[in-house]
Amino acid sequence: MLKKVLLFGLGGAVVLTVGILLGHFGIKDDSSSSECAQEAARDVDENFVTQFIEEVAAIQIEENLRTLTRVPHMATTAGDEATVKYMLSRWQDPDNGLDDAWREEYKVYLSFPNETVPNKVTVVSSSGSVLFTGTEKEKPYGPEQEDEAVVQPYAAYGPPGHAKGKLVYANEGKVSDYEYLNKTMNLAGTIAIVKYGGAGRAAKAINGALFGVAGVLVYTEPRDINDGKMSDSSETYPHSWYLPPTGVERGSFNTHFGDMLTPYLAAKGDSVIPEADITGIPPIPIQPIGFQDAYELICELDGPGAPEAWQGAFNCTYNVGGPGFKSTSKFNSSDVQLDIYNWAELRNSSNVMGIIRGSVEPDRYVIYGNHRDSWVHGAIDPSSGTAVMLEITRVLGKMVKAGKWRPRRSIIFGSWGAEEFGLIGSTEYAEVIFNAFLLTGDILSPLTNATLRAQASPIAQSVVFTASKQVKTPASDLSVYDNWIRYFNRTSPTHGLIPQVPYLTGAGSDYAPFMHFLGITSMDISYTYDRSKTKARIYPAYHTAYDTFDYSSKYIDPGFTSHQTVARVAGNVLLRLADSLLLPFSCSDYAESLEQYLSTAVESFNEKLAQHGISMGELITHWGHWPLKVRGINDQLMLLDRAFLDPLAFPEKISYRYRYTKHPINIPTPLPLHFPIRHVIWASRSSSVATFPGLADAFEQAEKTNLKQDWDQVHKQLSIVTQAIEGAAHTLEEVI
C-alpha cells in the first residue's frame, strides 16, 4: 500500500482556465482482498484517455458557448444568476451530470456605474460651453450591443467625482512617463490621457496622483491592439477581429485580488475593514474611452512632440500637451472635464461547485475551475473556458453515470464568480480552503487558433507535454506538442529543444492566491494566435461589447476546433492528475529552472556583491548538494513549491502590482493589501534580470542608491534564497 501522503494542486483563472487541486488524504490499510489491492494499484488508463479525446465534440462546445453568451452576465446581475442556474442544471443532469453540484455564496464589495446618471467626458470652453462629448455607449453592429444589460464602459473601483483641467498625454501612465512630463511642465490639476499597457489599470491613476494629476482617461491604442487598423467601414469588426473605434476595454481598477473588505477570510458578510480604509484603488477620477474619442483629443494637443516610443497609429503627431490644446485647435484654451458617478455596495456572488467522487482515494481531489462572470457577453473571456469545461464534464459525467469509469481521486469542478472584479470567487474559495488546511493548483487562458501556450511551475510542465503529444492540431496530423514547439521553444540542457513554458510570476488569473500565497503548483495553459502575424497584445475585443458569439464563431475559432483541441489537452492533463498512481511531475525540471536562475544571479551579481563583502558561496554550495534530480514521491513532489514560501521575504509584495503612496521625491512606496506574496522563486520582480526576484530587485535598488541599508537588504535576500533552497533540499531527502 502507498504510504500516507499530502497532495496539492490549483483552480481558477481568466478566459480558458483549468485549476487542479490535490487535497489531503490518508489511505487506510485495507488490502485484505486482491480486488482491493488491484484497485489501489490502478494507474491511468491510456485507452480511456484515448476514448475521452475521441468523444470531445466541437459541436457541443459551440452550443455551450451559444447558450452562455445569450445575455450579458456581469457578476451578480440577472444574467449572472441565469448562468449560475444553467451551470447547476448541467452538472445535476441525471444522464451526464456530476455526482453532486451546489452553489457557494459570498457577500463581496463590488463597484458599478450609475445606470441613470452616466459617466461623462467633455471638453469645456473657458465660458462653460461644451465643445465635445465623449461617446457613452459602444456603437451597435448587431443586437448584442443593443441589449439593455450591456454595462456602460467604466473603471470599476474608480472613485466618483468631478475633475477638470488642461489635457496632457502621458503615454502608459508609468511613474517614468509622468516623471518625463514633470521635467518640463507642472502637472498639478491636469487631466492625463494614457493608453493601456505598461502599468496596471489602477496604477495609471495612482501614479498620476503622485504628480498632482486631477483625473485620467485610458484608451486602447490601435497600434497596440489593431495593428494600426481604425476604420469600421472595412477594417475593424464587423469586417474582421479588430476592435471598432468606439470599443472600450472595461476592467477592475484595483491592485489586489479577493474581496476588499475581508482580507484573509471568506466574505460571508462580516467586514474585517471599513470601506473608508480600502487601499489599492485610484485616488482620482478615471474613465476608459474608445480610440475614436482619444483621436479627437490627442491630435489637438499642444506642446512638443512626444518621444517616438509614445507615438501611435493616429494620423497626427502625438504631442504631450502644453498642457492643453493648440492655439489653432477648435479646443483652444479649453479644459477636459470628467464627471464620474460610480458607486459600490455589497452584493451576493456565487461560485458553482460540482464533484465526481474518487473510487480509490475519494478524499484526495483535483479541482478544475474557470471563472463565469464577464463584463458583457464574454464569449472569449470567460465563456470559451466555461464551454470547454462543460464539454469535459459532459463526457466524464456520461462515463460515470454509465458505470464505465470513476477517477482514482475525486475531481471538483469550480465556476468562479466575480473574477473580473479582482479574482474574487477563487480567492474567497482559497481563503475557505486555507482556513480548513486544504488546498489547490493548475490553469489555462485566452483562445485563438494557432498554437498551445502554457505558463507553469517547472515541476508541472512534463504532464502538459505528455498530454499535448497525444492530441492532434485542428485539420492536421501534427500533434499539439509539435505545433507548439514551432511557435514557442527553448533549448533545455536536459531535454534539448522543447516548448517554452514561462513561469507564473504575475497575478493575472485565479492561480494567484494559490501559487503566490499558498505555494501550490500551478499551470496557465492557453490556445493563442500566431504572434508573428499580429502585434495585438490580446484579442482585440477583450472586455468590450464586441466579445460575442458572433465574434468568436467568425473570427476567433470558426468550427470550434481550437476549443475542441484545448478541451482534449486540458482533459488529458486532468485525467493524468486524477488517475495516475504517482503524480506526473518532474523534480529535474524544477532543478533545471533553478540552475538557470542561479547561473544568471552569479553572472549578474557576484562580482559587485563581493565588492560589498557579500558572498554567494553558501548559495552555490547548497545548490551543489540539492537532491532534486533523484526524488519523486508524491508528497514530496506536491510540497516542493511550498518549501519556497517565506512569509517575511517580501513585506512590500502583498498581492499588488502597483500600490503607491506619496513620497517626498515621488518614488513609489508599496503599502500592504491582501495576500502577502511569499514564493521566493516565482514572486513578481521589477528588475529586468531573470533570476531570484527578491535578490534581483534588491540588487537593482542598491546599485541605484549605493546605501548601506540597501546592500544589507541584498544580503538578506541572498540569505532568504539560500535557506529556501536548503529547506527544499530537506523536503526531498529520503524519509528515515
Automatic annotation (TrEMBL):
It comes from the Eukaryota. Pfam families: PA (PF02225), Peptidase_M28 (PF04389), TFR_dimer (PF04253). Keywords: Cell membrane, Membrane, Signal-anchor, Transmembrane, Transmembrane helix. One of its GO terms (cellular component) is plasma membrane. Residues 164-252 form the PA domain. GO terms for molecular function: carboxypeptidase activity. Residues 351-553 form the Peptidase M28 domain. Homodimer. Belongs to the peptidase M28 family. M28B subfamily. This is N-acetylated alpha-linked acidic dipeptidase like 1. It comes from Scleropages formosus.
